[in-house]
Amino acid sequence: MRFGDMIMQWSEQLAQFSEPHWAEKGQLTVTYLTDAHLATGRTLSALMLEAGFDEVSTDAVGNVVGVYHGQNPKAPLLLTGSHYDTVRNGGKYDGRLGILVPLAAVRELAQRKQRLPFGIEVIGFAEEEGQRYRATFLAASALTGSFDPAWLAQVDADGITMQQAMQQAGLPGTFDAIAALKRNPNQYLGFVEVHIEQGPILCEGALPLGVVTSINAGIRAICKTTGMAAHAGTTPMLMRQDAMLAAAEISLMAEQRARADTDSVATVGQFQVPGGSINVIPGECAFTLDMRAPTDAQRDALVSDIVKQAQSIAERRQVKFEYTEVMRAAAAPSDPAWQTRWERAVTAIGQPVFKLNSGAGHDAMKLHTIMPQAMLFVRGGNRGISHNPLEIITAEDADLTVQAFGALLDDLVAHP
Ligand code: GLV
Ligand code: MN
Ligand code: MN
């Protein structure tokens, strides 16, 4: 249990940093480049240095990058890691676990003064959740050469551009510096990511670990309906152009359409009547759509049906419907050889191999575009709840996960 207790303690150490409004309520919110985010990044750097990484740095998007050299510093590296930002009022393990597990494994190697035939690069990705800016996966995108330069001009809820936020954080804030982070896949063996499952399957199956077969495809959009604000007391029901009711009907339609496929999902996570009043028919409604499915084709059919039906709902209700896609991620099936490595690693530590696909999005989806990738899931307690402070793992499972990661390293030595 020496690894398990350490992972739990490190998770608590990282979770002490939260944004003021949320910290006051004892809640964990760490969005891109806020003070809490920068403090979390500094703590990760300190943990990596203490663990014995040879190089620790923070890159131009705020990723914390630790490299543990192999026997030959020129040999290709194993790339791994996950994100350290959180959703609002999130859990302590989503993302962070995938940084801390390899950190513990490298610490063990460094203590034994052991060098492998390959180096290990662990990345604490600065942003994966798309909370402060509509630039989901921006940190991993920098590594894959898909960082959109237009993101730098995006503003947060307080009107601060991403470029300003970067410069305030001491980062260059230039696209040139970000473009330079692009990784050359020839210098890497592949990418592996450890993550809490964030769903009920492992918990209900009494299984500590799961090998991921594929990550679902997703699209996110910002939507707006515009009708006519009018007097709530005098406007007859049949004369209204109620923007909120149109958005509500669209939300229910999206739910129905997703349910028609057994394995698609659609979520309206934000829903607002800007400047609304108790006695005014909503003239405007702003809402979001997050739509996912196991394959790109199924996702595209889902999205196309939802958008088409939203337009006809809007027409019938005489409101305008606007739809702006802000994120599109392709499904990411695991690389068969790397999935097999995880299966052998899980077997090597005496655990049953259970395979499942991922409904959640992950940094691995981005790395997938430039190198082979495969993920390992860890059981979450409380029936796997996540994006919720009830998210939990046990120290026993954390311990097994570090052992599995160590077994994956052994497997890479035995089967290069
Ligand atoms: C990332 O947490 C996601 O929304 O899947
Ligand atoms: Mn998440
Ligand atoms: Mn995550």
Please give a structural write-up.
There is one protein chain. The protein is an alpha+beta fold. It has 13 helices and 16 strands. Strands 1, 2, 3, 4, 5, 6, 14, 15 and 16 form a 9-stranded mixed β-sheet that branches. Helix 4 links the parallel strand 3 and strand 4. The longest helix is centred in the last third of the chain and has 21 residues. The protein is globular. The two termini are 29 Å apart. The model has no long low-confidence stretch (mean pLDDT 97). One manganese (II) ion binds next to loops.
Hetero groups = glyoxylic acid, manganese (II) ion
Uncertain runs are none
What's the shape? globular
| Total of DSSP H or I helical runs spanning 4+ residues | 13
Structural category:
alpha+beta
Name the helicity range.
25-40%
- Major β-sheet profile: 9 strands, mixed
Multimerization status: single chain
Give the H and E element order: HHHEEEHEHHHEHEEEHEEEEHEEHEHEH
Using the CA coordinates, give the radius of gyration. 23 Å
- Termini Cα gap: 29 Å
Q: Indicate the mean pLDDT.
A: 97
**Percent range for β-strand residues:** 15-25%
Number of strands: 16
